[in-house]
UniProtKB/TrEMBL annotation:
This is Quinol monooxygenase YgiN. One of its GO terms (molecular function) is monooxygenase activity. It comes from the Bacteria. SUPFAM superfamilies: Dimeric alpha+beta barrel. Residues 5-98 form the ABM domain. PANTHER family: ABM DOMAIN-CONTAINING PROTEIN, QUINOL MONOOXYGENASE YGIN-RELATED. Keywords: Monooxygenase, Oxidoreductase. Signal peptide: none annotated. Gene3D superfamilies: 3.30.70.100. GO terms for cellular component: cytosol. Pfam families: ABM.
Length: 98
């Protein structure tokens, strides 16, 4: 067992908002990956539903997630996401991770 923490978010674009959503999510990648506690920050797109995206994030611990959520790029995301997408997100502790 590790102390790592994973966040997975599934975001489905509102009608006509897929490109704006992709741009918003894309703007998170570089600054999030540069955060000291970030181990992974990946953006996925569902080919069967091009407006559906998955953010797959891995942090060293809960403090790193708290730090991420206080950054200007995450706050910008929060200010705009409700207008662009339906969102479900889960933050999970490792149980048995290789």
């Amino acid at each position: 067992m590790t102390g790592h923490v994973k966040t997975v978010a599934v975001l489905t674009a509102r009608p006509g908002k897929a490109e704006a959503l992709r741009a918003l999510l894309g703007g998170l990648i570089e600054p999030s990956r540069a955060e000291p506690g970030n181990l992974r920050y990946d953006l996925w797109c569902d080919p069967a539903a091009p407006g559906r995206f998955v953010l797959d994030e891995l942090y060293i611990d809960h403090a790193a997630i708290d730090a991420h959520r206080s950054t200007p790029h995450f706050q910008h995301y929060l200010a705009h996401i409700a207008d662009l997408a339906d969102r479900s997100a889960w933050t999970m502790d490792a149980v048995d991770v290789a």
